[in-house]
Amino acid sequence: MTKGSDTELQGLIDLANRGDKEARSRLLDHACDRLLKLTKTMFAGFPSLKRWEQTDDVFVNSMMRLHRALESVQPESVRHFFNLAGTQIRRELLDLKKHYYGKEGLGAN
Question: Residue 22, Cβ neighbours under 10 Å: how many?
Fold first, then answer.
């Protein structure tokens, strides 16, 4: 079984949903490569942000959001987990866009 396989991830999701707090951290660790790839793909859709941010920064902030989200949301499956992760990445990207290109943003002036 390779690191980050769906079977292993599902086992960690099940443990986290049963209240194992360490399982949540292990879940993020095991899914790290796939989450970084997802971040890179989604970040490519926001080319104007590349002037201000790097993929790794977006990734780290998104993972902090995901970790917080996992405190209140119990994903049922690996697919649900990655959908939740995608939502958190998108929120981070939209917040950064608003920060830099909003009314008072550096990129807007």
Answer: 10
Contacts for 59-64 with beta carbons within 8 Å, 24 or more apart?
59/35, 61/92, 62/35, 62/88, 62/89, 62/91, 62/92, 63/28, 63/35, 63/88
Token code pair at residue 58: 């977006």
Tokens read off for 40: 């890179």
pTM attached to this predicted model: 0.88
Per-residue model confidence as pLDDT tens for the chain (109 residues): 455 589 999 999 999 999 898 998 899 999 999 999 999 999 999 999 999 999 999 999 999 999 999 989 999 999 999 999 999 999 999 999 999 988 877 765 5
In sequence order, the 6+-apart residues with CB closer than 8 A to the CB of 31 are: 4, 9, 81, 82, 85
CA dihedral 80, 86, 87, 91 (to 10 degrees): 160
